[in-house]
Specification:
By secondary structure, this protein is an alpha+beta fold. The protein contains three helices and nine strands. The chain has an eight-stranded antiparallel β-barrel.
């Protein structure tokens, strides 16, 4: 009986340690690449903790889409334009780097706060500002 209890406790700690991202999930059967791939829409945007979703949608449009392919490419469509480029995980898949195909653009790193099948939260530091993007599929 003692061995069973010790095994259950050890397994509980193993499951609890599987979570990589601050906001979850703690365990997923889908790979990180499979979870990040898909068509995403902005649910909310925060600048230094303040909700700026309305202002963001006024610029990008509420119908803006962010399509990420497993192959390592992305395509963004927003009011007044579009962008495409490549993406890659970095720092043990705790960050993702997006590199625009636009000439002269610099790669941008985003810290992954949450990466679920239908929900993704990314945090980006831009100068003194911290932007947080909450996406839904």
């Amino acid at each position: 009986m003692k061995k069973i209890i010790v095994s259950i406790i050890a397994f509980s700690f193993l499951i609890a340690s599987c979570g990589k991202y601050e906001e979850g999930p703690s365990l997923s059967l889908r790979s990180k690449k499979a979870r990040i791939a898909g068509e995403w829409k902005i649910e909310s945007v925060y600048q230094d903790g303040t909700d700026i979703t309305t202002e963001y949608n006024a610029i990008a449009g509420s119908d803006a889409t962010f399509h990420i392919e497993k192959s390592g490419t992305y395509h963004i469509h927003y009011t007044g334009g579009e962008d495409e480029g490549t993406w890659a995980f970095k720092d043990g898949k705790e960050e993702v780097t997006f590199t625009s195909g636009e000439t002269g653009s610099e790669p941008e790193d985003y810290h992954i706060l949450k990466l679920k099948n239908t929900e993704m939260w990314l945090q980006h530091h831009h100068g003194d500002e911290t932007l947080e993007f909450h996406y839904k599929q």
